Amino acid sequence: MSEKNNIVEIKDLKVDFQIRQGFVKEVIKREKKIVKAVDRVNLSIGKGEIVSLVGESGSGKTTTGRAILQLAPKTSGEILFDGKPIEAKSGAYMKAFRARAQMIFQDPYQSLNPRFTVTDIVAEPLLFDGTTYSEEEREARVIEALEFAGLKPGKDFLNRYPHELSGGQRQRVSIATCFVMSPDFIVADEPVSMLDASVRADILKLFVEMKTQKNTSLMFITHDLSLAWLISDRIAIMYLGKIVEIGSADLIAGKCMHPYSQALTSVVTVVGDRNKRKRIVLEGETPSPIDIPSGCRFHTRCPLVQERCRVESPELREISEGHFVACHFPERIE
Ligand SMILES: Nc1ncnc2c1ncn2[C@@H]1O[C@H](COP(=O)(O)OP(=O)(O)O)[C@@H](O)[C@H]1O
Ligand code: SF4
Ligand SMILES: [Mg+2]
Predict the structure, then answer these.
(1) 272 has pLDDT over 50
(2) In the chain, count of helices (H) and strands (E)?
């Protein structure tokens, strides 16, 4: 059943990609290699809520965000938007959906049309919102959005082109465009990872302001837990296509229970020596998503692994209100 305060609900979402291997292997030998990029993920995002997806590169964060926005095809599962299944086959529905659900990319230079001025880019959504604006009204809306996004005075930016802006300013233009559209939901995929540390926090605060002023929900995708903690209501930790832990931002930053989350937060004790604290260094590489380990997919790198972990996959279990962990032996190790 759908929860009416959720803007997005994902149920058992799976996204597989088939890897191209050439004619001989695919057709003659009938070998198929499948990447399980997202593997039965369940997640809801409330109206006006900021939820971060955190994990190493390749854990399936981008694919999850893209699947919600219908930019990657789901293999199975259900995605509800504002309580209803997304009608991907209806052109009229998708036009309205694209206005309500937006994506902000890591590299704003690639997502901004280089031939458009800032005014053209930021005002574009106004062409489709069903209202006729005068030149003055249009300009006033654009200036308001630019100044919201920290480009002040907005007038000075109206006639610039993307190549005349810094990376931070370009990302602010993307945010100004979102501000004009007032979407209900934004997926921001590593939106500050290419920017100088000095502007990161400022840009992230704009998402919090969108939430406060417009009740916009955000899925913030990052590999950096400390950034997630800055702005999130809840944080979900992903490993090899699965959410392994989810809870409030404070809880995940300070009291997470999954060994992988604890590795990300960096301090874990050695088993059998509870007094000894050390920075956990995860052993080995992340396994390939083509060949996911049996049982708990983290068992090949887990310092707490036991026999059961190699054979039985742990489901996400609620261990305290709103705190879910997928581990047979969740414990706080400190
Ligand atoms: N279009 C695609 N075709 C094949 N494999 C893909 C495709 N997109 C992503 N993948 C694979 O899916 C896995 C998850 O990727 P991604 O969602 O980009 O992870 P993240 O954003 O966490 O780095 C990776 O192993 C990646 O190589
Ligand atoms: S289930 Fe076992 S291997 Fe997986 S995280 Fe928990 S202790 Fe480690
Ligand atoms: Mg990614």
Answers:
(1) no
(2) 12, 14
For the chain, the domains span 6-325
- Over residues 185-229, the pLDDT tens digits come to 999 999 999 998 889 999 999 999 999 999 999 999 999 998 999
Residues with CB under 6 A from ligand 1: 17, 35, 37, 55, 57-63, 289
**Alpha carbons 153 and 329: distance in angstroms, whole number:** 55
- Class of 6-325 in CATH: alpha beta
Q: Can you tell me the distance from the alpha carbon of 154 to that of 14, in angstroms, rounded to the nearest whole number?
A: 43
Contact status, residue 46 vs residue 20, Cβ threshold 8 Å: no
**Ligand 2 site: residues with CB under 6 angstroms?**
258-259, 296, 298-299, 302, 304-306, 309, 314, 327-329
Pocket test for ligand 2, best of 239, 261, 286, 304 (most atoms within 8 A of CB): 304
Question: Which atom of ligand 2 sits closest to the CA of residue 328?
Answer: 1
- The sheet with strand 217-222 has its strands ordered as 101-104, 185-189, 217-222, 50-54, 234-239, 242-248, 323-325, 317-320
> How distant, in Å, are the alpha carbons of 16, 27, 49, 81, 181 from that of 84?
24, 40, 18, 5, 21
- Name the strand (E) or helix (H) holding 46: strand 33-46
Q: Which pLDDT score is estimated for 9?
A: 98
Q: What is the best residue among 18, 35, 75 to mutate for testing ligand 1's pocket, by most ligand atoms within 8 Å of CB?
A: 35
In this predicted model, what pLDDT tens digit does every residue of 66-102 receive, in sequence order?
999 999 999 999 999 999 999 988 999 998 899 899 9
Query: In whole angstroms, what is the distance from residue 196 CA to residue 218 CA?
Result: 22
